[in-house]
Design goal:
alpha+beta, Aminopeptidase, seven-stranded mixed sheet, 3 helices
């Protein structure tokens, strides 16, 4: 059964754009996200992932698009892992990017794990191994080409 989440944008002040109860981890992420995304235009911001009234994770575009592509990132909060939330967050970010006709990439640690399984399920292909300034050696994944504007 597919999970149903909604993404709630985190505003430049660190406050979610919808009134939701924030567990401590979500509040910390919202606060940290404010500093990262000041000046980034929507939709290229950070989001909280909410199912019903429960915050189950967070996801983001790491920057606005660069050279027609954007990197996604997502995490499921403790106690909510393994239920499909990470896949749902990735799908939601992909839909936003494709609506804007932007290609999607992702980066993972260079080993098979839950994150790589999600990307494979969503039809990403491992494209290259690179040295990331923040994360060291990572695998970079590309999603199939972006649909052309109609």
């Amino acid at each position: 059964m597919a999970v149903r989440i909604r993404l709630v944008a985190i505003g430049p002040n660190g406050i979610p754009e919808e009134r939701i109860d924030l567990p401590p981890l979500a509040a910390l992420i919202a606060e940290e996200t404010a500093g990262l995304y000041r000046g980034y235009p929507k939709p290229w911001v950070g989001y909280l992932s909410v199912e019903g009234e429960t915050v189950v994770g967070s996801c983001a575009f790491k920057t606005p698009p660069i050279d027609g592509r954007v990197e996604i990132a997502y995490t499921t909060f403790p106690g909510h892992e393994g239920a499909g939330y990470a896949t749902a967050m990735a799908r939601s970010l992909i839909a936003i990017a494709h609506h804007e006709h932007v290609a999607v990439i992702a980066r993972t640690t260079p080993e098979a794990n839950a994150a790589t399984a999600i990307l494979e399920k969503l039809h990403f292909r491992r494209a290259r191994t690179i040295l990331d300034a923040d994360d060291g050696t990572v695998w970079e994944w590309d999603l199939s080409p972006v649909p052309e504007p109609s």
